[in-house]
Amino acid sequence: MTPIKNHHQALTLIELIVAVSLFAILALAITRVFLRVMDVQDKITNQQNLEGDLRYALGVLTDETKKSKKFIAAECSAYCSCSSDTYFCVNSVAPGIKNKLCVLDNKDVCVQYYVTNGRLIAQRLASVYTITSADIFINKIYFDTLTSNSSTVAIRLSATSTKNANESVYYQTAITNTPLQ
Q1: How far is the C-alpha of 86 from the C-alpha of 148, rounded, in Å?
Q2: Which sequence ranges are marked TM in the entry (predicted)?
Q3: Strand partners, 119
Q4: Are strands 136-145 and 97-104 parallel, antiparallel or unpaired?
Q5: DSSP H helical segments within the chain, as ranges?
Q6: Cβ of 158: how many Cβ atoms within 10 Å?
Q7: What are the distances in angstroms from CA 138 to CA 43, 116, 171?
Q8: What is the secondary structure of 95-126 as a DSSP string?
Q9: 160 forms bridges with which residues in the sheet?
Q10: For residue 12, with 0-12 CB atoms within 10 Å meaning exposed, 13-18 middle and 19 or more buried, which class applies?
């Protein structure tokens, strides 16, 4: 009778430890790559939300200012120091910092645009409307008219996301009035 030979070799403890270690290193590397991708995706989403919110705010501001009327008298004198025969009135809260814009809408109501606590505000008489969401913080905003009776206003602003304050967005645009009168 021939003896039964078992040619199966057993797995040693060292081989088992090496195999588990390689699997753990591979799993850790894949997890780190996945977490990094998720972090980058979160930053991209925050940046897109910031830019979308600013586009909306500038769209509201553009629509209002393009349809504004020319100041005939001192319609907005209680809010801005405006002269007649202008489309836009820009005020300074400090020397050289022009951060308040007044326009006369098509219903002869003075509308003011300014930033308070990092949010863009539109004020019609006693009604105050917040244009930007709480997800963004407007660091600076400047309004500037090229000449005293200009129908163009330049807007420069910088904003950051409240979720990721490391990245800032800078916008600069000019709006030219298309008069209703």
Answers
A1: 7
A2: 12-35
A3: 116
A4: unpaired
A5: 13-66
A6: 15
A7: 18, 9, 11
A8: TTEEEEEEEE-TTS-EEEEEEETTEEEEEETT
A9: 137, 168
A10: exposed
pLDDT tens per residue across span 16-59: 899 999 999 999 999 999 999 999 998 888 888 888 999 999 89
Does residue 132 contact residue 138 with C-beta atoms inside 8 Å? Answer: yes
Report pLDDT digits (tens) over 80-128. 766 666 777 777 655 555 688 888 887 878 888 888 888 998 888 888 8
Distance of alpha carbon 30 from alpha carbon 145, whole angstroms = 55
- Is residue 36 classed exposed, middle or buried when 0-12, 13-18 and 19+ CB atoms within 10 A define those classes? exposed
Q: How far apart are CA 158 and CA 173, in angstroms?
A: 12
Question: Which residue reads 């850790």 in tokens?
Answer: 28
User: What single letter denotes the amino acid at residue 121?
Assistant: I
**For residue range 101-112, what is the model confidence (pLDDT) as tens digits?**
888 887 878 888
User: Could you give the angle at the alpha carbon of 102 between the alpha carbons of 178 and 69, nearest 5°?
Assistant: 30
pLDDT at 20: 94
Instruction: Please say whether the beta carbons of 138 and 118 come within 8 A.
Output: yes
